[in-house]
Amino acid sequence: MKKSSLYISFVLVLVAGLFFGFLIGQSYTLNKGETIDKVSNETASLMIDFADGRIDTYNEIPVAQADTVFEMTKRTAEENNIEFVFDDYGDLGKLVSKIADREGGQENKYWQYWVNNISPSIGADAYAVGSGDVIEWKFIQYIGDE
């Protein structure tokens, strides 16, 4: 009688261990898979309109965690050997002053950005890029709150 109850206890512990081990393994696999998919599938697009007929486009740019419009643009410019100049105003943020051969102030035009056809009311260094966003930089006359 003792042997059978010891045997049943052993089998129950073994089955419970396998069951919980399976659940933990499934959870790890799903979490790991979700992270990989999230990193590899999150992309955005960037367009730079130089106001002279040139429009450079960059599609399927990987979006890093906590990427801002500024960081993504800077990284894309560096990867494509495009001059990218900005002024850092500390707590006030960063101002893009030159992309390629177009410098702010020329022809009374400046660099302004849009995300999904909307001109955000915050600086490019504060705007977080989301998956699927279309960022557009335009070299145009200042459009402010008039």
Q: Biggest β-sheet, characterized?
A: 4 strands, mixed
Radius of gyration: 26 Å
What is the name of the CATH class of the largest domain? Answer: Mainly Beta
Query: H/E series, N to C?
Result: HEEHEEEEE
Outline type: elongated
As for the number of domains, it is 2
Q: Kindly state the mean pLDDT as a whole number?
A: 81
Q: What is the total tally of β strands? A: 7
Strands of the biggest beta sheet: in what spatial order?
A: 2-1-7-6
Question: Which second-level CATH architecture of the largest domain applies?
Answer: Beta Complex
Strand content: 25-35%
Structural class, from secondary structure content?
A: alpha+beta
**Weakly predicted, low-confidence segments:** 26-40
Please count the helical segments.
Answer: 2
Short account of what is shown:
This protein is an alpha+beta fold and 146 residues long.
Core attributes:
single chain, 146 residues, alpha+beta, 2 domains, 4-stranded mixed β-sheet, 3-stranded antiparallel β-sheet, 35% helix
What does this structure look like?
The chain is built from two helices and seven strands. By secondary structure, it is α+β, with helices and mostly antiparallel strands. It has two domains: 1-41; 42-140, Ferric Hydroxamate Uptake Protein, Chain A, domain 1, CATH 2.170.130. The protein has a four-stranded mixed sheet. A hairpin with a 2-residue loop joins strand 4 (94-99) and strand 5.
